[in-house]
Amino acid sequence: SVPSPQPAGAIRPIERASVHRICSGQVVLSLGTAVKELVENSLDAGATNIDIKLKDHGTELIEVSDNGSGVEEENFEGLTLKHYTSKIQDFSDLIHVETFGFRGEALSSLCALSDVTIFTCHKSAKVGTRLVFDHSGKITQKAPFPRQQGTTVSLQQLFYTLPVRHKEFQRNIKKEYAKMVQLLQAYCIVSKGVRINCTNQVGQGKKSCVISTAGSPSLRENIGAVFGQKQLQSLIPFVQLPPSEAVCEEYGLNPANMPQNLYSITGFISRCDHGLGRSTTDRQFFFINQRPCEPAKVVKIVNEVYHLHNKHQYPFVVLNIGVDSECVDINVTPDKRQILLQEEKFLLAILKTSLMEMFGSDVNKLNVNQRLLDIAGNLKKTLPEETEKPQAEMLSDSETENPSGEGKRIMALARLRKSFSLHQATESNFQSSKKVKQQHSSPRQRLLDTTGSTVKIQKTVLTKEAESCPKLDSKVSVPRRHLRKLEDAADSGFCSISESDAGCSTPEAGSCINSESAFNSEEELCSTEEQMEKECLKTSGCGKKSLDCDVQALGTEPKLGQVSDWTDQNKCSQEASSCSPRVKRFKSRNFKSEADDSKAGKYPEVKNTSVDVLVEVKKKTVPLEFSMKVLAERVKKLIQQQQKNTETENYRRFKAKISPGDNKVAEDELRKEISKDMFAKMEIIGQFNLGFIIAKLNSDLFIIDQHATDEKYNFEMLQQHTVLQGQKLIVPQNLNLTAVNETVLIENLEIFRKNGFDFVINENAPVTQRVKLVSLPTSKNWTFGPQDIDELIFMLSDCPGVMCRPSRVRQMFASRACRKSVMIGTALNVQEMRKLITHMGEIEHPWNCPHGRPTMRHIVSLDLIS
Ligand code: ADP
Ligand code: MG
After folding, report:
1. Is the predicted pLDDT of residue 690 greater than 70, yes or no?
2. For residue 217, which phi and psi values (nearest 5 degrees)?
3. I want to staple 186 with a disulfide (CB 3.0 to 4.6 A). Which of 202, 292, 346, 499 is the partner?
4. Is the CB of 43 within 6 Å of ligand 1?
5. Is the distance from the beta carbon of residue 32 to the nearest atom of ligand 1 less than 6 Å?
6. Which residues surround ligand 2, an ion (CB under 5 A)?
7. E-state strands within 749-846
8. 325 to each of 47, 106, 290, 291, 522, how far by Cα in Å?
9. pLDDT band at 646; cut points 50, 70, 90
10. What is the pLDDT of residues 590-615, one digit of tens each?
C-alpha cells in the first residue's frame, strides 16, 4: 500500500474535538458525579430550591432545576466551554475559593458525554432562553423560553458518546444509582436553607421520591429529613477538645508548637451504646469547609475510636471540619473529593482526643436534643448544633492519600460478599467476571495470612492435634474482621459505603406521600421472575457448573458439538423452545443426584449439553458428512493431546510446601490446577492417621483433611439451602428505612424470606413507611434483629438478587456445619471417603473450611520420585 505522507512515528497534537472527548470521561465518571456537578452549580448559583428529576434512574434523563441566579446572555457561549468559569480568574483566587466549582469543566464535559439542553433566565432578562448544545459545547439552537429566574440543565442519554462506558453504565445502573444517592445525601445534609428534592420515574410509572429536604437552616434537621427522626435520637453532637498530651505523644506532636484554632470541628456521631451504631459504614459523611469529601485518615480514626467503645458497630457520622483555606488544597482530583490538608496530624489528634472524651464521658448519655451543660468551661465554644449556625466561612480540604479508594472498595466488597454469600453469581454477565475473580485468593486465605490466631490453627492442622474444632472463638470474629477490612481498605467513609440509602424525608414531608417504589411494579415482577430463575440455577449448584465445563470442553470444537447432536439425533427435531425447560429440569435433577455423577451422570449430561447448544448449531444446518470412525479418532487424538499437555506440565504444577507460610500459594495452585470435575476422578489410596484421606490424581498425591472438607461442604449446603424458620412478631415493627433501602428490601424479598425475615408491604403507604417487619428468624441460642436486615440490605445494594446471608447467620451455619461433620479419629471406608472427595467438586471454594482450616494439600508428584 501507499506509505502515508506522515511518518507513523511523528508526534502531533490530537485534534481538539477528540481531546475533549477523550478527557471528558475523566471529569464525569459516573451518574453520581454528573448529578453532583449539576447540584454544585445550582448551589454555587445561590439556589434555595433544587429539583432533581431522573428518568430510569438517570440513564434516560437527568434534569436539575434551580432558582439560582440564572445565566446572563453574554455568558451563554462560555457556559459549556472547557475551562470557562465565572468563579475564579487566576490561580491566586483558588486559595480562597468558596464555590464548589472552579475548574470550568463540568458542563463542557457533560456536553461531550450526553445531549445537553439548558433553560435559563437571569434576573436581568425579560424572558428565559432555551439553549441546545452539541458535543463540542457549541450552541446549536437558541430560542426564547418563558421561565422563572434560575436554570435548568437537562442531560439526555448520559455516556452515549462512549459506547463501552454506556453499556457498563446501564448494566450497573442500580449500583450507580445507589452511589449517586449516597453522594446526594451529603449535599442535602450540608446545604442549610436549601430545599433539595429528587425524584425518579421508571418508564411511564409514577414518580417516586428519592430524597427530599425541607430547606432547614440546621444541620440537625437536614439529617432528620434525610434519615428520619429515629436516627437523630441516637446521635450526640461533636464536642471539640484540644489534643491531650498522650495523643500528642502518639502522633509525635509537640504541644508547644501547635497552631491555635486552626481547626473547628462540628457535627454529630452515634452514641456508642451497643445498638445505637450501625452495622455498616453506610452513613458517614465528612466535609471540609462544608465541601463533601473523603478524608481517608479522618474516616479511619473516627471509626477506630468508635470501635473501642462499641466493638461491633459503626457510627453514623456527620462531621464538618472548618479550617483556614490557606491550609487546604482542594484541587487534587477533578471531582474535588480528595483534599490535601496541612497539619493533618494535628487534626487527627484533636479528633482522637475529643471522641475519646465524648465516648468515655457522660456526654455519651446526653442526646442531641439536650444541651451540653458543663463538661469543662473551655468546651463551650464548640458545643452543639444550635451554636453551630452558619460559621464564618471556613476553608476546605482534607487529604486522602489513596486515590484508588474506589478500586479498593470494590475489592473489599467483593471479598466481603464472597465470605458472606453463596459464591454463586448467577447473572450471565457475571459469570465471566467471576472467573477472573476466582483468580484472586479467597477472603479467608487472606485472613489466614494476616491473623495470627488462625495461622496457629493451621499449623496444627495436618497433625493429629487438629482433631477437635479449635476455632470457635476465632470464628466469631471472622466476619467482623471482614467488615473492618472493608473499612480499612476502603479508606474513606464514602468509599466504603456502597449502600444506597436514599433517605426520603420524614413522613411529614408531604411530597413523599403517594409516591411509590422507585422501581415500578412491572419491573419488580420481572425481577422476581429473574430471581426465581436464578434460584433455579442456584439449586442446580455445581451441577450446572460442571455442565458449563463440559460445554466448553466439547463446544470449543465445533465438530464435537455435532457429535452430540448426532447422539441425540432422534430428538433433534424438537424445537428449541422445548429445550430450556428440559435443561432446567435436568439441572435440578442433576443437583438432587448429588454426588453420583460417576456413571449415570455422564450420559444425560452430554445429552443435555447438546440440547443447550442446539439453538446455535441448528442455525448452520448443513448436510453433514459423517463418519463415526473419523470422529472416534478425533476424540481419541484430543484426549491424548490433553493428556500430553497435563503430563508435560505435571511436575511443575504444585510447588508450594505444606506449611502455614505457604498456604496462599498452595491454595492458588490448587485453584488453578484442580477443576471441579477432577475430584470425581481422584483415586482413593486410603486413610491416614484416622484423620486424612490420601488421594491420587494422575501422578499427584493429595492429602485431604476429612473433617475440614466435610465441614466446608456441609457449610456450603447450609448456606445455599437452609430456609431459616421465622417467628412471627406480635406487633409488626417499623424499620425506619430510607427510601432507597426500602426499595432494595422490596426487590429482594425472597432472599430475606430465605433468611427467615418476613415483611408486610403496603404499597400505598408513604415511602419509608411501606415495609413492616412481621417475622424474624429464630434458632436456638441465636437472636436476630433489624441490624441483620441492614447488613443484608448493604450487601444486596451492591449485588442485587444474589443470595446472601447476614454474617451472624453465617456464623451459625459454620458452627452447625462443624458439629455435623465427620470428626478426626473416625475410621472411614472407601465409599465414605469417595463421598467426601466428590463433595469437594460440588462447591465453589473447597480449599478451606469455614473457619479457615486448609482442606487439601498436594503431597508429592510421583513423577518426581520415579
Ligand atoms: P465551574 O462550576 O467549575 O465554574 P461548570 O462547567 O460547572 O464550571 O459551569 C460553568 C459556568 O456555568 C459556571 O462557572 C457558572 O457561571 C455557569 N453555571 C453553570 N450552572 C449554572 C447554574 N445552575 N446557574 C447559574 N450559572 C451556572
Ligand atoms: Mg461546576
Report:
1. yes
2. -80, 5
3. 292
4. no
5. no
6. 41, 101, 106
7. 758-761, 771-779, 782-783
8. 23, 23, 12, 12, 51
9. low
10. 444 444 444 444 444 444 444 444 54
* Cell numbers linked to 504: 426520603
Q: How many residues does the chain have?
A: 866
CA of 106 to the centre of ligand 2 (A): 5
pLDDT, position 324: 87
- Show Cβ contacts of residue 325 under 8 Å, excluding neighbours closer than 6 positions: 95, 96, 97, 98, 289, 394, 395, 396, 397
Cβ-contact 210, 62 below 8 angstroms:
no
Q: Measured from the CB, is residue 67 less than 6 Å from ligand 1?
A: no
Q: Model pTM greater than 0.70?
A: no
Residues 6+ apart with CB under 8 A from 235: 223, 268, 269, 270, 271, 316, 367, 368
- For residue 100, give the ligand 1 atom closest to its CA: 2
Q: How far apart are CA 787 and CA 82, in angstroms?
A: 47
Angular region, 5: left φ>0, alpha ψ -120 to 50, beta rest: alpha
User: From the alpha carbon of 66, which atom of ligand 1 is closest?
Assistant: 23
Superfamily of domain covering 16-212? Histidine kinase-like ATPase, C-terminal domain (3.30.565.10)
Ligand sitting nearest the alpha carbon of 43: 1
- Find how far residue 801's CA is from the centre of its chain: 13
Q: In the CATH hierarchy, which fold is given to the domain comprising 228-360?
A: Ribosomal Protein S5; domain 2 (3.30.230)
Matching CATH topology for 228-360 and 673-865? no
Residue 667 CB contacts under 8 Å (≥ 6 apart), including other chains? 441, 442, 445, 847, 848, 854
Ligand 1: does its nearest atom lie under 6 Å from the Cβ of 79?
Answer: yes
Give per-residue pLDDT as tens, 56-95. 999 999 999 999 999 999 999 989 888 888 887 777 777 7
Name the residue at shortest CA distance from atom 8 of ligand 1.
104
Coil, helix or strand at residue 238 = coil
Centre of ligand 1 to C-alpha 85, Å, is: 6
Among protein residues, the one whose CA lies closest to atom 21 of ligand 1: 41
The CATH number that domain 673-865 falls under is 3.30.1540.20
Mean pLDDT for the chain? 74
Quick check: 787 pLDDT over 50? yes
Cβ burial of 620 (10 Å; 0-12, 13-18, 19+) is exposed
Query: Looking at residue 752, what is its pLDDT?
Result: 92
Is the shortest distance between the CB of 292 and ligand 1 below 6 Å?
Answer: no
104 Cβ inside 6 Å of ligand 1 = yes
* Rounded distance from Cα 46 to ligand 1 centre (Å): 11
Which of 44, 93, 123, 196, when mutated, tests ligand 1's pocket best, judged by the most ligand atoms within 8 Å of its CB?
Answer: 44
**Residues near 108 by beta carbon (within 8 Å), at least 6 away in sequence:** 20, 24, 80, 81, 82, 83, 84, 137
Domain ranges of the chain: 16-212, 228-360, 673-865
